[in-house]
Specification:
This protein is of the alpha+beta class. 24% of the residues lie in helices and 46% in strands. 23% of the residues are buried.
Amino acid sequence: MQRCSLPRVLAIATGLLLAVPASGPATATSPTPAAGLAEAQALVQQGRFDEALAMLRPLVRGKTVPANVLFYVGLAAVGASRKPGLSGERRDTLLDEAIAAFRAMLVRRPDIVRVRLELARAFFLKREDSLAREHFERVLAGKPPPAVVANVNRYLGAIRARKRWSVRVGMALAPDSNLGGRTDGRTILIDTQFGRLPFIYNQEEAPASGIGLAIWAGGEYQHPLSDRWRLRAGGTVSRREYQSDAFDRMFVGAHLGPRWLIGPRTEASLLASARLSWLSDEPDSRDLGLRFEGRHRLTPLLSATLDASWHERRHPGRADFNGPLVDAAAGLGWAALPTLRLNAAAGWAMQRTKQENQRNASRWIRAGATALLPWGFTLGGSGTVRWTGYEGNWAPFVLGGGARRDRTYSIRLNVLNRRLDVRGFSPQVSAVQEWRRSNAQLHDYRRLSGELRLVRLF
């Protein structure tokens, strides 16, 4: 019989869940594990879920638990949660028990599609729709039978139709080797009548490193206007602090507008958008504009996105930097396997400031992947290249005068272990290496940053 080892933290968490008294009758004698499992399977098939749980719970208290026992604990707990007349608290407790059992199996074997389907269903019943949707989409990547595909698509349609509240919160430690993105150069070459001569550039501060604390929170409510129309209203706030307040940042944003469910696989939103930012606790910029968001599922495994926005930006006390910002991005996401997701995107942006040499346009491309590995590891990464061109004369930074041209590269890696679980959250470590090459002197830089954050499991 296949067995699945549970880490100590999951054993403790599962033990707490399983300490809830069973509502079914207790057995007079303790059966052998094989006999208890066989009897529990029969009870599940008969729909006697509470009695099945009473048989199964003593079997999950050891250091190792048979995978079949975990699976039937999950099935029985989901079935029991649908019993009429249950309180909301009791129902959620049973669904949490099911989620813990299915998760324990997927930690070691993330490729088991049937278990992932049951986990998605448990999240759906608990109305944790973002997690349910992710797992249903991974099930489709496993190429299940047509009847399962049709059932999953019905779940996905129900998730999209009933979406109301969404909330996200988090915090992270954020080390950074170059907080201001500054160059470490100090010498600039200038063309003079005596030839090209070096001069020391009077820059106030050298690149500074530090460890910051980042916190963020956001939420949205979607009010139903009709079968196909929703009114979206939401906001977000974030704060990043360092030992030196010169690098502290704060951001507040809000949006309001309609969401149109065009068809079973297509939707679009047009949102009024307002954004405020502070640098060193001083107002830095304020934006007011519009944002468009489009989503379309090309196939069960391939989805496309299109985002665009226009904002009028104002900088208090720096009128020369005022002007419109326009950006657009298109992306593709592919569930290549139940354990592998690939994505790619391309974008364009433009900023038209009053000051000529600060006007710029940029284009970028990005590719990434996320893989669920055995033993609970999730590994993700992406690479981005951005090209930016400025207008006007950038002499003396550009030798001989002319426009500035930058190319910026960034590589991001993320890793977490799904076995490390604190109420459904796991610590995630991310690292970003970024560097910029420019034809403008003293505008190159290198930067290594990262975050240690808590993220929602599955």
